[in-house]
Amino acid sequence: MSLPVEAESQSAAYYVSSRRLPRLQELSLIGIIVLLGAALSYFGWRYAMPGHPNLFLNPDNLVDGIATPMSVYAIMAVGATCVIIAGGIDISVGSIFALSGLASAAVLQQMPVDASAWLVIPVAILIPMIVGSLCGLFNGALVVILRIHPFIVTLGTMVIFRGIGNVSVREKILPDSRHQLPAVFSHFMRAQIAGQRLMPMLVMLACVLAGAIYLHLSVAGRKNYAVGGNEEAARFSGIRTGRVKLLVYTISGLTAGVAGMVSLGRFSSMSTNTATGYELMVIAGAVVGGASLLGGRGTALGALLGTLVIAIIGNGIYTLQLPEENRSIIVGAAILVAAALDSRLTARLRGSRGGN
């Protein structure tokens, strides 16, 4: 009868350690962001044309070049972080993003162009959230029932979800040539606040806040850390690990659906090829933000900061007038560096716990 007590103590110890270490990682990321910002601000003045604003510091670049594009990645990175904390991975988020957006566009294009905001906006928000959640729940069910590695499961569903989108849309882009989306939704998502289009960022911050509340202030969040830290110990502690996995994959699908909704509102269209390759940026943001690929560690704030670091580096390519092709190299290198650091930190963490 001592095994469940010992398992509970192991889960609790890992939960505590999983909350302490990310604080240092988050502070480190903030320091990196400050240093990157300072360096790019210098080069922004140096490469700016005479009489033109700083290439990096001008508000249009900070909002339209960094914050707005990174919003969809950060939203999905929050969901991906929840999955990674539980010891899983989800590479189907790009396909869920596209399928959710296509489903929303398919319904919205059947409405009158001048339809009321009270009808259009709830539909535009709820449909991608429902579709994304169902896709995530499907992923979780396959992981729990088939007991196959999540990478293989989500690799398969990535192709399936993308295929469903391709089969469902005849012209491969919505709205099709015969329809238009109601204007009110685009006006809502592009609404200007203080002279800037900040709605995508507000949605992103709401998702980060919700993710932080779930992970740090709820019992379900604690179970998430316990399952990722030691699934067997969590099971002996009475945690229903299958339910935890179902929940985190549903959350990942939900955030992908929200990101698809934001993108549809920004661009007023959705293609079957939209978000191809987004899973790389999403996982990179989560991992650079401190989520351990071994499970048991990560935060919503870390996901935001990690995505911001990658976005600033990507924008720095423009500021330094480097070829755009360098972006993928930098993102891949960032994943490798973050994974290497995580491996060292995990080894030290286990050593400090006496090898548990």
Name the features.
356 residues, mainly alpha, ABC transporter involved in vitamin B12 uptake, BtuC, two-stranded antiparallel ribbon, two-stranded antiparallel sheet, 13 helices, 75% helix, globular, disordered N terminus
Class derived from helix and strand content:
mainly alpha
Strand order of the largest sheet: 1-4
The whole-angstrom Rg is 21 Å
Global shape: globular
Report the count of strand segments: 4
User: What's the story with the biggest beta sheet?
Assistant: 2 strands, antiparallel
CATH topology: ABC transporter involved in vitamin B12 uptake, BtuC
Strand content: under 5%
Helix fraction, binned, reads over 70%
Tally of structural domains? 1
Describe the SSE topology.
Blueprint: H1 2-47, H2 59-85, H3 93-108, H4 117-146, H5 150-168, E1 173-174, H6 183-189, E2 192-193, E3 196-197, H7 199-217, H8 219-229, H9 231-236, H10 241-267, E4 270-271, H11 278-288, H12 300-319, H13 326-352
Antiparallel strand pairs: 1-4, 2-3
